[in-house]
């Protein structure tokens, strides 16, 4: 697809955390898992360790902190004490240190770019920076569904994440894509340290995939299915090195692994992004 080999990360957002899926992933060469402290009703880490603890050493594991159980369901917090405790709890529940811990959707608590929010973000990032320094995890990053509220908050007072995870694929709007690129630049991150998520907008069975044919983005369009083509395109919209995709179906995972030979037509991708920008600004396509 391009110089560096793209990587599939098996996401556990919608997964039932079944052992058969993890063993199939290893058979397919998928050796990266992505979860979060709040997945599976805040039980993901514990269930993962219980059902596949002996397999976890064969995976690199990323997880996320930022959501906590609340009286009315999940609540978001960037409180440093709660974040540090969440990282410690993740280590205990997984039975090992995560390879990567993301600050999960910090924009949820940072809706306006104010000096106070910059301080809040800096403190939250410092928690994860310290977690790496003290051996609780190997690296840290930011996972953001909507990076726009974070723009303007990254400066010399804010520790820089090593990885940025953002939405990727054909269903992501121009403003979100541009915000992701801008945030990556502010953090000094290139495409090799950018991850994508939700490449199908949450559902490969959505009607949109019957109405559009993502194979127009490929050089070898006749060799892959529409789902496979959409997945390959997601690595370029925006440019990322890894894509986290959630599934409980080993056959779906196998299909995506089979898409990795797809080659994107870069000019078509750039034309598509230009079209998105024109439409987002209300200009004629």
Please supply descriptive tags for the structure shown above.
10 strands, 10 helices, 8-stranded parallel barrel, 285 residues, 38% helix, alpha/beta, TIM Barrel
Outline:
By secondary structure, this protein is an alpha/beta fold.
Which residue ranges are poorly predicted, with pLDDT under 50 across at least 5 consecutive positions? none
What count of domains describes the coordinates? Answer: 1
CATH class category: Alpha Beta
CATH topology: TIM Barrel
Number of helices: 10
Q: Briefly note the structural class of the backbone.
A: alpha/beta
Describe the structure.
The chain contains ten helices and ten strands. The protein has 285 residues and is an alpha/beta fold. It has a single domain, classed as Alpha-Beta Barrel (TIM Barrel), CATH 3.20.20.100. Strand 6 (100-104), helix 5 (115-133) and strand 7 (140-144) form a beta-alpha-beta unit. Helix 1 packs parallel to helix 9 (250-257) and helix 4 (80-94) runs parallel beside helix 5 (115-133). The longest helix has 19 residues, at 115-133. The chain is globular and about 50 Å long. The model has no long low-confidence stretch (mean pLDDT 91).
